[in-house]
Automatic annotation (TrEMBL):
InterPro entries to which the protein is assigned, alphabetical: DUF397
Protein name per Swiss-Prot or TrEMBL: DUF397 domain-containing protein
Pfam family, one: DUF397
Residue intervals of the DUF397 domain: 6-57
UniProt superkingdom: Bacteria
Amino acid sequence: MSTPPWIKSSYSNGAGGECVECARLPQGTLVRDSKRADGPALAVPGRAWGSFVDALRRGELV
């Protein structure tokens, strides 16, 4: 499998704080700690990721 294109969170301030990166795949989304690019990634199925993002946009998760 080729390396997926990782996208850093827009909330990253570049000062080494807490940040995540996501990579979209046909079957879902991978999520990892941006400070540990060689570390593990969490695989989230597409439908679950969509529900999560929708809840964030509605302000249901803080």
